[in-house]
Amino acid sequence: MIQKEDDSAKGVAMKNKHKSKRRHPVIRSLKKQAPRRNSPKRKKIPSAAPSGSIEEWLRTLTKPYVIHENLPPHAPEQTGQEYPSRQKEPELPVPPESQAALPFIAHKNLRVLLVTPFFRTNHTVGGQSIPEALRLLVKELIVIKAYEGFTDALTRLQPDLLLLLGGTEVMISTDLETIRDSGIPAAVWMDDENGVTDSQRWMAQTFDYVFTQHHAHLCIYQETLGCLNVHYLPFPADPEVFPPRKSGEYERCDILIIGDAERSREEYIRVIRDFSTDLKLLAIGKGWEPFSVKTVPCSAEDGLQKVYNRANMIIQWDPVQRRVFEAAACGVFQLAEASADLFRYMNASIDVVPFQNAAELGTRLTYYTDQVDQRRLIASQALWNTHYEYSPLHMVIELLRIIISTSS
Prior knowledge:
- Pfam families: Glyco_trans_1_2.
- Residues 269-400 form the Spore protein YkvP/CgeB glycosyl transferase-like domain.
- By secondary structure, this protein is α/β, with parallel strands linked by helices.
- Among the domains are: 106-236 and 394-407, Glycogen Phosphorylase B (Rossmann fold, 3-Layer(aba) Sandwich), CATH 3.40.50.2000; 255-390, 3-Layer(aba) Sandwich (Rossmann fold), CATH 3.40.50.2000.
- 39% of the residues lie in helices and 12% in strands.
- It contains 16 helices and 12 strands.
- The chain has helices at residues 2-21, 25-33, 54-61, 98-101, 129-137, 151-157, 173-182, 198-204, 218-224, 266-275, 301-310, 321-329, 342-345, 358-370, 372-388, 392-407, and strands at 111-116, 140-145, 161-166, 186-190, 209-212, 229-232, 255-258, 281-284, 294-295, 314-316, 334-337, 353-355.
- The chain has a 6-stranded parallel sheet with strand order 2-1-3-4-5-6, sandwiched between helices. Strands 9-8-7-10-11-12 form a 6-stranded parallel sheet, with helices on both faces.
- Helix 10 runs parallel beside helix 14.
- The longest helix has 20 residues, at 2-21.
- 28% of the residues are buried.
């Protein structure tokens, strides 16, 4: 039974084999009509064996290519055909030596000892923005607090520059003597926007460089105290502390006034009250109780930042430049009384609008209240400049530039 099945399977396989050799009648007819092509003969590969010596054969293999000046590299050589001459590639300039190409930056080699206020005040000088800017500019930065006897670190570390921020702490006489006798250049960036205190007067005579918050204080340090290197340099606004923030409608005010309600400013107050009968007013300063204007207490930077961002417009007289910078960092439109401090770093009618008297203040109020786009444009320009014109980095660069240029 098994043998019979094998024989039948073998027969089927032979039948399929003969069937697979049969061609379709159309294919058979086309094949008969097509002429038979003679397959080309294969070219023989020439023998690589040298006919002469080994040296001659190697020379034939290493024969250099001939470059035709009148032919592009991709074109075949043809007789009787002219080609334009090939242009030579321009020579690359030779780079100068690395040391000669880079300018010498003196502050990059400085080791700076920065002394910050020991106690945190309501308005911390510079915050973290000044130390962070210094770290980017100098070789080494060491930060310590202004505790009693901090000059021990000055003697031990021997920095290239001592920089004291604030100058509000009362320094003991031994620390001042150590600074004076150390021979190390010493600078103090005074926090004297509210006036020069007795301790600051005493301290300023010890330091080689004094930086003040008001132009009016220059004569105090120079003429009264005999300081040689005195410069006006306001503290910058820290963009991390004073960013633009959106406030709720119930929190917002139409006009925020920054300044004291003194007798000399009664004309300003009268113009504002006549103009803003239906507007919401807030004030930062002293003496506003008789005028029925709500004052805002600002106990810390965070509270001041919130007050700035609540205002649609800010009016400042006797402006402290740092306050103007902070309001600009919050992206708020400002009207400020014209002063020598104001135009040292800010541009009139570009990032702040100045006024000189009550009549100009009334004109500016009337015009800019309706010009919303103009207010937004000026506030945006001031916000931009707090990052790229009078930022903490720019102010620290200016401080180092003054110290290096006057010491050389």
